[in-house]
Amino acid sequence: MDQKEIKKTWRKLIVPFLIGITILVTSILAHRLGSKRPGPQTIWLFSGILGGVLTLFPSLKMLKFNKYLNKNGLK
Question: Which has the closest alpha carbon to 62: 17, 5, 3?
């Protein structure tokens, strides 16, 4: 695995992570500061769950990839 492939893999992992963080933060802020009616609250709850999932899975993959790089001395 060369440097170009490592950069591509990191980019593939970081982009969904950053999107997930953005969705999660936006949904938390909208939930806390937005309308207190049940409809919008439910929408922000589900978008918060989506943001959490989009943050969790790429972060686990990043940890695995980092361990792989350290194990094989590629870092």
Answer: 17
* Residue 3 main-chain phi, psi, to 5 deg: -60, -35
Give the domain ranges of the chain.
3-72
**pTM confidence score:** 0.82
Average pLDDT taken over every residue of the chain = 90
Asked if residues 34 and 62 have their Cβ atoms less than 8 Å apart, the reply is no
d(CA 15, CA 23): 12
How does DSSP assign 47-60, residue by residue? HHHHHHHHHHHHHH
